[in-house]
Amino acid sequence: MARVAVLRGGHSMERDVSFVTGRRVQHALERLGHEVHPLDVEETTTGALMELSPDAAFICLHGPGGEDGTVQALLETLGVPYTGSGPLSSIRCMDKDYAKRALRAAGIPTPPSRTFLRRAMNEMGASAALDVAADSLGYPLVVKPAREGSSFGLSRVEGPDGILDAVYEAFGYDAKILLEGWVDGTEVSVPILEPAGEEPSVLGLVEIRPREGAYNFEAKYTPGATDFAIPAEVAPETAARLRETALTAYRTLGCSGYARVDTIVESGTPQVIDVKTIPGFTETSTFPLAAEASGLTFEDLVETILDAALQTEARAKL
């Protein structure tokens, strides 16, 4: 059995979700017989890790600080193996602008977007280009922070009158934002698992059906607010495209261990919206739901992810 530090909490907007994920992972590891040490990320975390000298760290941190390569780089410095993707992949996936540029370069469909930085707004008068960007994308469109999750700061904009309010809202969460073309279609989450020594594979296709229309924070984490179809009720050829697209995105962004690729299927074509290197493991999260539907218990899922970390040297990750 291994000595495992479960890193949870942190300082991002997703702190509370991280605690839920962390508690579930902690209890699963304890049931599996591991020696588990839950750590809330704070100023004393590095010292605690050095004193504990764990066999591995199970990262349950969502958002900035957890999914952006910060904690991964620290763990590599300490020589502690960890779950999930390395710093470079984490940076790419966390920043939706970087991710979309990499996906487009690889020929992977993703909605068109335009990037704005607060610095350009302040120093270059970039706000004058907002209407140009919006017109090129067309309405409706989405305005969202480039480096946040759980739909924080995200707005759907129906026309020119709403663009400035949406931009100010997004800038309240991040100094970098995206204007993104709106995609109508079926929302499908694609969880990918990469056991030690094996190729990554799709656990299942999860069709997301929010009861109130929008898959926002409340719909994601309120039991009963969203219905799920597993497997997704799409045509066989569309299902094959979803699997191929998700695995290509996973490899293109350099993910390892596990990740979740979020898509919207428009006219049979999957459009990649986001790639999460540390997806939620709450009771309503799509990753554990897909694992259960595929025959994996939650303990099986956690053990598979931990085993991949234990068998992969931290310094070997990208």
How would you portray this structure in words?
It catalyses: 2 D-alanine + ATP = D-alanyl-D-alanine + ADP + phosphate + H(+). It holds the Pfam family Dala_Dala_lig_C. Cell wall formation. With 318 residues, this protein is an alpha+beta fold. It has three domains: 3-84, Rossmann fold (3-Layer(aba) Sandwich), CATH 3.40.50.20; 91-109 and 184-295, ATP-grasp fold, B domain (D-amino Acid Aminotransferase, Chain A, domain 1); 113-181, ATP-grasp fold, A domain (Dna Ligase, domain 1, 2-Layer Sandwich). It is 37% helix and 22% strand. It has twelve helices and 13 strands.
Provide the fold topology.
Elements: E1 3-8, H1 15-31, E2 35-40, H2 45-52, E3 56-59, H3 70-78, H4 87-94, H5 96-105, E4 113-117, H6 118-124, H7 130-137, E5 141-145, E6 155-157, H8 163-171, E7 176-181, E8 186-193, E9 201-202, E10 206-210, H9 217-221, E11 226-229, H10 236-252, E12 258-266, E13 269-276, H11 286-293, H12 298-310
Parallel strand pairs: 1-2, 1-3
Antiparallel strand pairs: 4-7, 5-6, 5-7, 8-9, 8-10, 8-12, 10-11, 12-13
Helix pairs in contact: 1-12, 4-5
Subcellular location: Cytoplasm
Active site: 14, 150, 285
Function: Cell wall formation.
